[in-house]
Amino acid sequence: MTYPIQASGPAVTAQDLTRRFGHFTAVDGVCFNIQRGEIFGLLGPNGAGKTTTIRMLCGILLPSAGSATVLGVDVASHPEEVKQQIGYMSQKFALYDDLTVRENLDFYARIYSVQRETRKERLDVLIDMAGLTGHDRQLTANLSGAWRQRLALACAIVHQPAMLFLDEPTAGVDPVSRREFWDLIYEMASGGVTVLATTHYMDEAEYCHRVGMMYESRLIALDSPDALKAGMGGVLLEVECSDPAHAEGLLAGVQGISSVNQHGLLLHASAADAGMAASIRRTLKSSGISVQRVEEVIPSLEDAFVTMVHREHTRG
């Protein structure tokens, strides 16, 4: 039986989605919706539960509790139907090294039953999109990491799915290639494709329309990147001093400072207001730490994530 793709409503719904492995809970009661044409990011460190979440939504793992639908199809009741309707790019490239670029694409086109009469044209379009024109007869084993990444994406969308799942798609790829990859994602989203991407790169999550922050198996925040940063409250003060490691511990106990973390040789302190700069200077100088500057800066998603994690620990 074939289940038609829903033409309206969210592309993805997750309600109290949970996955346990024995006594270990990998995903704990996650709830979110993804609208059609949206680029949605799941952000968090390795082990946060991102991959397990995406594997449940792809019909690869059955939920232990809760429910989810993808394009209107229930992932627990009809996982095989979900797999037919989506594109999925896993952390490990599912490419055949002993096949050429075109042969890999042709293989996936046949798996997804792309019509024979349109197959060559479709492959030509994908090879051009991936920037692999002139390299389609090259063995996949000889491709660079960035080109393999583009080929893996092309294979995932060879059947023109309405929903695309990308699990850590740019891990280990240089920043320029990452930017070019996201340009391709934007192009697909503008054509109506819905995208869910997992990442542990904080800057990469800025490319998403909305971001869900995962930590220790739970979704701890969900909003647009700008709203998440604005939700930190107060101000962010950047501190340059002689002993940042020691200074971090000292400032963590100062009233009016909610969290402190190191950014290389600098410190980022979430403070109640800009007036806390004077307290920071006094605290550090009284401990023999010289202070070069304390100034207010615009927070990044990494700052927002650290603040959210601190709040979780404080509640606990």
Entry summary:
The chain has 316 residues and is an alpha/beta fold. The chain folds into two domains: 12-228, Rossmann fold (3-Layer(aba) Sandwich), CATH 3.40.50.300; 233-298, MTH889-like domain (Alpha-Beta Plaits, 2-Layer Sandwich), CATH 3.30.70.
The share of residues in extended strands comes to 25-35%
Approximately how much helix is present in the residues? 25-40%
**Mean pLDDT, nearest integer?**
91
- In CATH terms, what is the architecture of the largest domain? 3-Layer(aba) Sandwich
User: What is the highest CATH level, the class of the largest domain?
Assistant: Alpha Beta
Overall 3D shape: elongated
Q: Whole-number radius of gyration?
A: 23 Å
Number of β-strand runs: 14
Weakly predicted, low-confidence segments? 1-6
Q: Order of strands in the sheet with the most strands?
A: 6-7-8-3-9-10
Number of domains: 2
Structural class designation: alpha/beta
Task: Compute the number of helices.
Answer: 10
Order of helices and strands: EEEHEEHEHHHEHEEEHEHEEHEH
Major sheet: 6 strands, mixed
CATH topology of the largest domain: Rossmann fold
User: What distance lies between the first and last C-alpha atoms, to the nearest angstrom?
Assistant: 47 Å
Write out the CATH superfamily name of the largest domain. P-loop containing nucleotide triphosphate hydrolases
